[in-house]
């Protein structure tokens, strides 16, 4: 145990050294950065590579440079997990030339390309709306059901549901597979198209397979999101009354959340109490409590919100508060002095700060115009490998604009562009409206420098 802790500590220390080296030599050429890395006397391992890549998940240039440098070492060869991480980083940054080059290199090593590689590539290609390349990749890897479901899932996740359904109907054998039907149904539901979701629901009922609990859950959630709570409640209560496919905790949570949103809090609390008594066949979990905590924070019943969190902490297990719980509490705060208490509570319950929490803290500190809070949060994000990402820079650009700090707006915008992060349209419009010429940036040949 002690040996494992020492090894983990060494990885953290070396990763911090590498992160600082890449950050402060950002304007240097590739050869100079590699020479500096050579002088660090690093012990390259998969864990070290993964930790460095994790810290640069939103900054592809230093991640790619370090990966390439490490791959040339005579004493180290990256495994599939490491390669998949850098593929994901490149795909997220839309660096598909580099991505395909690495994929070709991986093809020369048997066993290096695995199912997670396929899932990563499909996700990033579809996210960039490169559907033809994604379908070609599917055929390249072989058209087995697992790969096909993965392709359909990512097509639906990124709103190409019609394309996914058209592909689905080219495989008649899958009409007997409820899991594949569920992917299509969920796609239309996530897209918010209840009309098409109802059509697919009817197709499922008419198909050779029966709806399962995921099918019901998906449809109930779509109905509640579109405000059709009455229809959702009839379907929900019918599941229990008619037997057969009984609602699970996910479906119960969905209904509770919808009732809270419609301010039908007593009905939501009644289902919550029935769940605790075991009348629904499932007990509350963290999602159940989170819906109620969110509702209480929204209607400013903070004493009830904190009572619920106290109960979550006492019950522990699947009810233990998570980052979502504490984000609701953080959003309800009125001044910076209240933040440490919530963060200390998080730490006490073993809940670590993630990118969502960091970005929420940035948003709060910028709103409060608390420069020290912003600086500390930004430094913690970098040190712990949670960014800053595109959301972080968007918060800073718009926040500083609202606070009248034009120089800071331009500084963060330029830094965002230098990392290859694509600004949101509203951010580009804001900077353009300032009528300030943002310094042009181009990637130097063979390096990570930008000028």
From TrEMBL:
Keyword field contains Repeat: yes
Superkingdom of source: Eukaryota
UniProt keyword Oxidoreductase present: no
The PPR repeat ranges on this chain: 177-211, 212-246, 248-282, 285-315, 354-388, 389-423
Keywords, comma-separated and alphabetical: Repeat
Alphabetical list of InterPro entries matching this protein: Mito_RNA-Proc/Resp, PPR_rpt, TPR-like_helical_dom_sf
Pfam assignment, any one: PPR_2
Family indicated by similarity: Belongs to the PPR family. P subfamily.
PANTHER family the UniProt entry points to: PENTACOTRIPEPTIDE-REPEAT REGION OF PRORP DOMAIN-CONTAINING PROTEIN (PTHR47933:SF54), PENTATRICOPEPTIDE REPEAT-CONTAINING PROTEIN 1, MITOCHONDRIAL (PTHR47933)
Record-given protein name: Pentatricopeptide repeat-containing protein
Organism of derivation: Flemingia macrophylla
């Amino acid at each position: 145990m002690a040996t494992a802790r020492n090894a983990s500590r060494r990885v953290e220390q070396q990763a911090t050294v590498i992160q600082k080296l890449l950050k402060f030599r950002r304007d240097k050429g590739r050869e100079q950065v590699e020479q500096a890395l050579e002088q660090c006397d690093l012990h390259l391992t998969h864990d070290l590579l993964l930790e460095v890549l994790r810290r640069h998940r939103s900054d592809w240039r230093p991640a790619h440079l370090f990966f390439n440098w490490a791959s040339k070492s005579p004493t180290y060869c990256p495994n599939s997990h490491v390669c998949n991480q850098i593929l994901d980083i490149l795909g997220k940054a839309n660096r598909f030339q580099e991505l395909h080059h690495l994929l070709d290199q991986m093809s020369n090593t048997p066993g290096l390309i695995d199912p997670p590689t396929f899932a990563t590539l499909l996700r990033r290609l579809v996210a960039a709306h490169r559907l033809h390349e994604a379908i070609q990749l599917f055929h390249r890897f072989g058209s087995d059901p697992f790969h096909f479901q993965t392709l359909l899932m990512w097509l639906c996740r990124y709103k190409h549901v019609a394309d996914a359904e058209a592909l689905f109907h080219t495989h008649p054998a899958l009409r007997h597979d409820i899991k594949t039907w569920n992917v299509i149904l969920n796609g239309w539901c996530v897209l918010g198209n209840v009309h098409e979701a109802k059509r697919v629901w009817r197709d499922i009922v008419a198909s050779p397979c029966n709806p399962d609990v995921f099918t019901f859950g998906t449809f109930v959630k779509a109905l509640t999101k579109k405000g059709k709570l009455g229809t959702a409640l009839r379907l929900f209560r019918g599941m229990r009354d008619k037997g057969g496919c009984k609602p699970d905790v996910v479906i119960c949570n969905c209904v509770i959340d919808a009732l809270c949103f419609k301010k039908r809090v007593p009905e939501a609390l009644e289902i919550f109490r029935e769940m605790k008594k075991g009348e629904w066949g499932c007990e509350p979990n963290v999602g159940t409590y989170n819906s109620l905590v969110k509702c209480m924070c929204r209607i400013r019943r903070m004493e009830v919100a904190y009572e619920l969190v106290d109960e979550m902490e006492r019950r522990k297990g699947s009810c233990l508060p998570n980052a979502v719980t504490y984000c609701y509490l953080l959003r309800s705060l009125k001044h910076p002095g209240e933040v440490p208490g919530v963060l200390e509570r998080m730490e006490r319950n073993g809940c670590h700060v993630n990118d969502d929490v960091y970005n929420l803290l940035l948003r709060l500190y910028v709103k409060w115009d608390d420069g020290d809070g912003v600086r500390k949060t930004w430094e913690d994000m970098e040190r712990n490998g949670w960014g800053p990402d595109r959301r972080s820079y968007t918060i800073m650009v718009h926040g500083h604009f609202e606070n009248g700090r034009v120089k800071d707006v331009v500084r963060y915008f330029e830094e965002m562009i230098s990392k290859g992060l694509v600004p949101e349209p509203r951010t580009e419009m804001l900077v353009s409206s300032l009528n300030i010429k943002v310094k042009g940036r181009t990637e130097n040949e063979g390096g990570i420098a930008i000028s």
